[in-house]
Amino acid sequence: MRVAAQAExxxxxxxxxxxxxxxSVTYETVVPARVLRPGAEEDVSPGKVRLRPLSVGxxxxxxxxxxxxAGLVPLLMIKESMIEPAVTLDQVRQMxxxxxxxxxxxxxxxxxxxxxxxxxxxxxxxxxxxxxxxLAKHFGWTPDQVAQLTPAQVAVYLAGVEKLLALERSEGxxxx
Length: 176
Known about the structure:
By secondary structure, this protein is mostly helical. It is 55% helix and 7% strand. It has helices spanning 16-20, 33-36, 56-65, 72-81, 89-94, 97-111, 119-125, 127-139, 143-147, 151-172, and strands spanning 27-31, 47-51, 82-84. The longest helix is centred in the last third of the chain and has 22 residues, at 151-172. Residues 1-6 have low confidence and may be disordered.
């Protein structure tokens, strides 16, 4: 069976490394003076921060962590994306809303999300997102640890989790 040709002629088939390369890129982002200190722009120079795109695994965990408090989503996104300067969640909480709004817009842009972060929920509900959340929750792993697993490792760990869950279900229902 032949695959219909697309209107655009794509380049060669990409490698896995090509697909994953964007996740390791860092972006220097200039924060305008008007964003750093609204109303005092004349006295403030623009600054810059270094951000990394958010991965599906990080987005899934952010979504899961903020399930009971949606207001945590932007704060956790900034904490996970900002690599220089590295900030704690408490420090992000202390930022003014204009700066948070600016940073979230830039993080969404470099992560390939829509301006309102709409893809966050879609990523968390995707099969890969659910897998990342399951592994992180069950084994207590960080997003980086889950993201570094190979597909074969994921398959092995998921099979083990399934067996453990089945065993727990049978013990819980009175079976041996």
